[in-house]
């Protein structure tokens, strides 16, 4: 006797710190937790329904090229390149990608001495400008932690912000416009 089909089953894939995941499986929700100064970059191609999520720690891989080679998701420059290349391998196209960014807070650095969150944001903005990429939605900065969810069935990006009960829709899904 065949096993029953699970309808509406959602599979949550956790993207850890300095890591990334890309998929074309509509039952997957990519999730990354507790973004402080780190940034999350979510991408989604609504035509081929490919999405990816990256959890970046630091702005520039030149501080540790060996670490960047072993763990490209740690840095803005190597992580974004790896995220996009992985999505392209599944059929995504650059000009169709919808991009959402969250994080970059000033957590545990209230004096602003290190400014890692802001430096991550600046590095990401410069990289996107150089490559002609436009962010469709973002929630960055401040003094809060964020959790990000990317639904591959819809392309919707949701946030859970520390101190808030409800989740926030950062980027609506099911749109083929950029």
Report on the structure:
It is a single chain. With 178 residues, this protein is α+β, with helices and mostly antiparallel strands. It is 20% helix and 31% strand. It is built from 3 helices and 10 strands; from the N terminus they run βββββααβαββββ. Strands 1-3-8-9-10 form a 5-stranded mixed sheet, with no helix packed on it. A 5-stranded mixed sheet has the order 2-5-4-6-7. The mean pLDDT is 91.
Q: Concise description?
A:
With 178 residues, this protein is an alpha+beta fold.
Keywords:
alpha+beta, 5-stranded mixed sheet, 3 helices, 178 residues, 20% helix
Q: How can the largest sheet be summarized? A: 5 strands, mixed
Strand-and-helix sequence, N→C? Answer: EEEEEHHEHEEEE
Q: How many beta-strand elements? A: 10
Q: Structural class given helices, strands, pairing? A: alpha+beta
- The value of Rg in angstroms is 16 Å
Helix content class: 10-25%
Morphology call: globular
Instruction: Give the overall pLDDT as a whole number.
Output: 91
Report the end-to-end length measured between terminal Cα atoms.
46 Å
In DSSP terms (H or I, runs of 4 or more residues), the helix count works out at 3
Strand order of the largest sheet: 1-3-8-9-10
Strand content: 25-35%
Task: Return residue spans where pLDDT drops below 50 for at least 5 consecutive residues.
Answer: none
């Amino acid at each position: 006797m065949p096993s029953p089909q699970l309808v509406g089953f959602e599979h949550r894939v956790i993207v850890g710190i300095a890591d990334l995941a890309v998929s074309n499986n509509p039952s997957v929700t990519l999730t990354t937790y507790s973004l402080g100064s780190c940034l999350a970059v979510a991408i989604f191609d609504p035509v081929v329904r490919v999405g990816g999520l990256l959890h970046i720690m630091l702005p520039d891989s030149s501080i540790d090229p060996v670490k960047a080679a072993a763990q490209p998701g740690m840095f803005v420059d190597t992580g974004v390149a790896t995220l996009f290349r992985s999505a392209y391998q599944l059929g995504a196209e650059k000009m169709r990608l919808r991009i959402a960014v969250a994080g970059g807070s000033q957590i545990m650095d209230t004096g602003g001495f290190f400014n890692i969150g802001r430096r991550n944001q600046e590095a990401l903005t410069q990289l996107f400008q150089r490559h002609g990429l436009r962010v469709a939605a973002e929630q960055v900065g401040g003094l809060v932690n964020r959790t990000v969810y990317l639904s591959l069935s819809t392309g919707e990006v949701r946030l859970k912000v520390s101190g808030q009960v409800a989740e926030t829709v950062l980027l609506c899904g099911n749109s083929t416009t950029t």
